[in-house]
């Protein structure tokens, strides 16, 4: 498990962005052992990297990424991903 500061450093993502993604449901809720002490699964680093990848390579919006994540049958290979994003934006 990672503290917020560790997640921010490892993912190179601002704290405000991490909190926004949690609020939007793109990242899982952290474990809250104590007030103002949140622990995130190490998988969140990969997830943040994937979100950045979608945004920079496919110009994906938050709503498009949420739709992709909501569809548990999605296959995240490059060709199918681009095709699904095109359908979501059209």
Coarse morphology = elongated
* Main sheet: strands, sense, barrel: 3 strands, antiparallel
Order of helices and strands: EHHEEHHH
Strand neighbour order, sheet with most strands: 1-3-2
Compute the CA-based radius of gyration: 14 Å
| Proportion of beta-strand residues | 5-15%
Low-confidence runs: none
Q: Using DSSP, what is the number of strands?
A: 3
Distance between the termini: 39 Å
Folded structure, characterized:
This protein has helices spanning 4-11, 15-24, 43-58, 62-70, 78-89, and strands at 2-3, 31-34, 37-40. 61% of the residues lie in helices and 11% in strands. It has a three-stranded antiparallel beta sheet with strand order 1-3-2. Helix 4 (62-70) crosses helix 5 (78-89).
Short description:
The protein is mainly alpha-helical and 90 residues long.
Relevant terms:
90 residues; mainly alpha; 3-stranded antiparallel beta sheet; 61% helix; 11% strand; elongated
Give the helix/strand layout.
Blueprint: E1 2-3, H1 4-11, H2 15-24, E2 31-34, E3 37-40, H3 43-58, H4 62-70, H5 78-89
């Amino acid at each position: 498990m990672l503290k917020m500061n560790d997640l921010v450093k490892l993912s190179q993502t601002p704290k405000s962005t991490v909190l926004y993604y949690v609020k939007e449901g793109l990242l899982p809720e952290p474990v809250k052992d104590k007030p103002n002490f949140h622990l995130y699964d190490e998988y969140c680093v990969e997830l943040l990297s994937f979100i950045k990848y979608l945004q920079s390579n496919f110009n994906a919006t938050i709503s498009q990424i949420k739709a992709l994540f909501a569809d548990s049958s999605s296959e995240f290979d490059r060709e199918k991903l681009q095709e699904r994003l095109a359908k979501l934006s059209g």
